[in-house]
Specification:
The structure is a single chain. The chain has a single domain (about 1-255), classed as Rossmann fold, CATH 3.40.50. Helices cover about 45% and strands about 15% of the residues. It has eleven helices and seven strands. Strand 6, helix 7 (about 150-165) and strand 7 (about 175-180) form a beta-alpha-beta unit. Helix 1 (about 15-30) crosses helix 11 (about 230-260). The longest helix is centred in the last third of the chain and has 29 residues, at about 230-260. The chain is globular. Bound molecules: adenosine-5'-diphosphate (ADP) and magnesium ion (MG). Adenosine-5'-diphosphate (ADP) binds near residues 13 and 180.
Length: about 260
């Protein structure tokens, strides 16, 4: 089971948009996928047409240890969703020892036979919820916007991730991609070149272009594959998911080769 945490402390960079559309692409193309809302704002369910604010979800899983399988709602074929739940913000303040950081990891272990992929939609905070996401992740997926302020944020985020890896707080690969990309703007291209130069092995080949349909489909409660299947945005999100699938396939082959060697 691959667990993809969509992470960036910056709001509005497209974490939720990415979680929904990469999640649905994986479900359509590859296998059973679980979307998990770790943002107390709870926007994820709205993007798929569910609007039950009072329904419990990750709040009870993390605060009370309720089984995650009991909180899954089947939102599409091969696509389950666990909502944030009304009390998820309380988890940031909850008391407890170091094991508090591994609650999500343990919860997900119980559904490892059910899902091929899990996609975690993280909020902008970098507290206990983010720590849980990173401890549970096999992959940290970072959407960045094409301006210089995002660059300083990105450098800091990657440094934090490296530090967590070296302290063994998580064991994951990190991947960066551009969202809301505007290829005609020189600034966008310059920022892209800078990131490609510094993080070439971590930058995915696909960028998601700024596109009004992506905001529209969220409002309509649909993924881009339902709302405008033949749009450029749909093509790009499918390509982004393929980028990840290819990285995973390459990783598996390298592992096999090193086992033989
Ligand atoms: N590539 C894009 N083109 C146009 N609008 C986008 C794009 N990506 C995201 N948006 C819009 O930007 C806003 C913020 O995106 P969202 O996914 O909610 O970000 P985050 O979860 O990081 O806060 C939303 O209204 C969303 O529809
Ligand atoms: Mg969000």
């Amino acid at each position: 089971m691959r667990v993809v945490a969509v992470v960036n402390q910056k709001g509005g960079v497209g974490k939720t948009t990415t979680a929904v559309n990469v999640g649905h692409a994986l479900a359509l193309e590859s296998g059973p996928t679980l979307l998990v809302d770790l943002d107390p704002q709870g926007h994820l369910q709205h993007c798929l047409g569910r609007h039950d604010r009072n329904q419990s979800g990750m709040d009870r899983v993390l605060l009370d240890g309720d089984p995650i399988a009991d909180k899954v709602r089947e939102v599409r074929v091969d696509l389950g969703l666990v909502p944030a739940g009304p009390d998820l913000a309380d988890f940031e303040a909850a008391q407890g020892g170091a094991e508090r950081g591994y609650k999500l990891r343990h919860a997900l272990a119980s559904v490892a036979d059910t899902y091929e992929f899990v996609v975690l939609d993280c909020g902008p905070a970098s507290g206990m919820l983010a720590a849980n996401a990173i401890a549970a992740a096999s992959d940290v997926l970072v959407p960045v916007a094409g301006d210089y302020l995002s660059l300083t944020g990105l450098a800091r985020l990657l440094l934090t991730l490296r530090r967590m890896q070296s302290m063994h707080l998580g064991e994951f690969d990190e991947w960066v991609f551009f969202n809301r990309f505007t290829p005609r703007r020189r600034l966008s291209r310059e920022v892209y070149e800078t990131v490609a130069e510094h993080f070439s092995d971590r930058l995915l080949g696909t960028s998601i272009t700024e596109a009004a349909v992506l905001a529209e489909c969220a409002g309509a409660g649909k993924s881009i594959f339902e709302y405008r299947k033949s749009s450029r945005a749909a093509r790009e999100f499918r390509a982004l998911s393929d980028d990840l699938l290819n990285k995973w396939m390459m990783g598996n082959e390298q592992e096999k080769a090193s086992n033989v060697a």
